[in-house]
Design a protein that fits this description.
With 231 residues, the chain is mainly beta. It has helices spanning 3-24, 221-227, and strands spanning 26-29, 36-39, 70-72, 75-77, 83-94, 103-108, 122-130, 151-158, 163-171, 181-189, 206-217. The strands form four sheets. A four-stranded antiparallel sheet has the order 7-8-9-10, with no helix packed on it. A hairpin with a 4-residue loop joins strand 8 (151-158) and strand 9 (163-171). The longest helix has 22 residues, at 3-24.
Length: 231
Amino acid sequence: MSSLKKLTGLLCLLACTNTAQSQTDYLIHKRGMLNQAVYKTGALGRIAYQNGGTTEPGVPSFEWPAHSSVVLDGITYTGQHNSFGGGVQIGATPVDTIARARLYAYCGGGTNALPQQNSFPIPGADKRVENYPVLDNGDLNPAYNPDEAEEMIVTQWATPVGVTIKRTSRAWSFPDYDDFIIYEYEFENTGDLDGVPSSPKHPLKLVDLIINFSHGLTGGKFGYDRSNGWS
């Protein structure tokens, strides 16, 4: 094999590896009693391609109480998860194109049987912000902001609709505040179709834009596992 072919093969391998990793990259809300996985693709909790009623050990899907995995009678149960997964979906029609074919984006909370090709999100950047009142050494945190959440996860991703989505989710550990998560969404028609900041952006005029927030809340997974599966 020539050096050029070897280099090309290596670049393809790296590109495929990065794409696979970006599909599963996530951060976890773990400050309160309700834990949740937040993905770069927009998915929340149990991601769509996990079929058969499964959850991945250590990856919470509205897990309450937290750290509920247990081994009972030699069987490992992943825990008391309370969601089949969630996310957001977008549908819109461009008016400046000849075809005017409807565009879709499925960012978690869907299934493998999607009605439209090229409808998956383009994973972006995410970050975790901690705003704890007390530092690890026991000292009060001089930078603590009592008007903001203790734990924030900010994720932004592009979609094949050209609408960029930014989600900020917030969690607390205080009594009566430790069992919910607040999600704040921002939608902007940027024209970003690939998630590359340097690429040209040409926002389309969109009409009939529909945004759907989905979350498959359910009874705890542990009870179903003990009886007859979770599906």
